[in-house]
């Protein structure tokens, strides 16, 4: 392969991924010409990429509509992502309890690689989650209560790297976008063992979060609740008590899961799928 080969392959890969994003954004799929125009690709290149993706079942051709849509292999990838990120059933039950006892939308977040990721959310029609916060949400750590918990547990180099990578975008007029101000708030989070977020991510919504520590006391996860801003001040003491109590139970559940996995692996009964253990802060 010549020197331009690897670069050409990377360029093709990026185009194929961009093509998937474009098709995913279209509820009814897109015609090849629409894909070509959106990505500013020659038709020949568009058809070549589509042929590869159709062959791999990442895209399907709908001949009766002259359109291309997402393929079913992506569903398998999504299911696999859930298996890798979903917390143990003992934790999901506790997050459900938190939702019921706190009478609030409840969240469980973890470190995954260099990201802070929502691994589980429980809400209801009466107590809905924040609109954009579903499974896999991984943005705006500086503007969320669970994000601040995780940032407060990072070393200085880790925190600087995270902020350099993700930035500090203004989500609302209340978002903290100054690194020095954030530093002072994270020091308060460490001192109190709880993070507060008041309309910094979404107008009209306030959140509380507590850390889930490992055996060494490092935050490997966070549990959080969100409520409407007008009721936050009056409900905060009760939310604080419930959140700390169930957060403590979640910590015990994760440690128990980690012990079970350590015992199971030498006998060949453990999972051998390359996933990180609970002690590194990722779900089973």
Automatic annotation (TrEMBL):
SMART domains, per the entry: HTH_ICLR
GO molecular function: DNA binding; DNA-binding transcription factor activity
Keywords, sorted A to Z: DNA-binding, Transcription, Transcription regulation
Pfam families: HTH_IclR, IclR_C
Domain IclR-ED: 73-269
Domain of life (superkingdom): Bacteria
Endpoints of the signal sequence: none
SUPFAM superfamilies: GAF domain-like (SSF55781), Winged helix' DNA-binding domain (SSF46785)
Region of interest: Disordered: 257-284
Keyword presence, Transcription: yes
Domain HTH iclR-type: 10-72
Coiled coil segments of this chain: none
GO BP, one annotated term: negative regulation of DNA-templated transcription
Protein name, as recorded: IclR family transcriptional regulator
Native species: Arthrobacter livingstonensis
